[in-house]
Specification:
Layout lengths: L3 E7 L6 H9 L6 E7 L6 H11 L3 E5 L5 H12 L4 E4 L5 E2 L5 H9 L4 E10 L4 E4 L13 E3 L15 E4 L16 H10 L4 E14 L14 H4 L1 H15 L3 H20 L5 H14 L19
Parallel strand pairs: 1-2, 1-4, 2-3, 6-10
Antiparallel strand pairs: 4-9, 5-10, 6-7, 6-9, 8-10
Helix pairs in contact: 5-7, 7-8, 7-9
């Protein structure tokens, strides 16, 4: 068994893939495997992957049967991962030199379930790098410990690429959404409602690239709203998970917080007003609102709910 399995879902990433894989190859901590999941790319991505698998035995190629998205790719890789710890890297991002080393040191000296790392964002169109302004709020105890609770679980970003977790904690109820965007959100709630001990490293170890070809690289007005309704669909999936695992009462306020964040994601742009209202109405019925939330209604942050 290797210490790390690094999952890299890849689809038409030839512009950035070599830089991404090279950043992984040059890690200061060397005991890892890289599961490169080619999701039926139509560009030169597969050839780039093959160069790495040919020259470095730590790199392995996995192919999906058709183009099925990053959630399917990650779930497929997770099934065959040999690592004690799982890290995810997007195919257009950069893992800094100690991306694996520093989390490994934390896992070795603590009993945490996951380690979160500090990312920075590279805005390619502006050639500008910024930090996540809210990062300091992630640490709630001296030394970087963070306990995920029903009260704070909705306060943190759900991205998979800034979180490393123990593979032994994964069970049949923990997975990424396979047929929709925002697949990270469902995995986040499925994992961190079960495993709550986190350590946050206050050191930049990852660069997340924002560019015009990425899913989040354009403004809301330039996106396909039919695709981005997925955020509400994933919320419904989380509701079903909370019901099935008998923890809905414990997390229902968190679910409503997530739902309201979804609304705010799109509400600033009038392009989607009619579609947004229809989606909101449908989602409310699917999460059994208002019947299941009567005790929360006086304290809801928006009047019309």
């Amino acid at each position: 068994m290797v210490k790390y399995s690094i999952i890299v879902p890849i689809y038409n990433a030839e512009k950035y893939l070599n830089e991404t894989l090279k950043s992984i190859q040059e890690q200061s901590f060397e005991d890892f495997e890289v599961l490169c999941v080619d999701d039926n790319s139509e560009d030169n991505s597969l050839a780039i992957i093959n160069e790495y698998t040919k020259n470095d035995k730590r790199f392995k190629l996995i192919k999906t049967p058709s183009h099925l998205g990053p959630g399917f790719s990650r779930n497929l890789a997770l099934k065959i991962a040999n690592g004690e710890y799982i890290a995810c890297v997007d195919a257009d991002d950069i893992a800094h030199k100690d991306f694996l080393k520093l989390p490994y040191e934390i896992f070795e000296k603590t009993d945490v379930d996951a380690v979160w790392i500090k990312p920075q964002i590279y805005w390619q169109s502006k050639n500008l790098t910024t930090q996540m302004d809210n990062f300091v709020k992630w640490r709630d105890q001296e030394g970087g410990l963070l306990n995920i609770t029903p009260e704070n679980i909705s306060n943190y970003p759900a991205y998979s690429w800034c979180k490393i977790f123990k593979k032994s904690l994964i069970n049949k109820t923990t997975y990424w959404t396979e047929d929709k965007l925002y697949e990270d959100v469902e995995f986040y709630y499925r994992f961190y409602t079960q495993h709550t001990k986190v350590y946050v490293i206050d050191q930049i170890l990852y660069t997340y690239r924002r560019h015009k070809d990425s899913i989040l690289g354009t403004n809301i007005a330039n996106r396909n709203f039919e695709q981005h309704k997925n955020l509400f669909d994933v919320t419904v999936n989380i509701y079903k998970y909370l019901i099935e695992t008998n923890i809905f009462e414990k997390y229902k306020k968190s679910l409503l917080t997530l739902f309201i964040k979804n609304i705010n994601e799109f509400n600033k742009d009038t392009t989607f007003t009619k579609q947004l209202r229809a989606t909101i109405s449908k989602t409310l019925s699917q999460i059994n609102f208002p019947e299941a939330y009567q005790d929360l209604r006086p304290n809801l942050p928006i009047d019309w709910l």
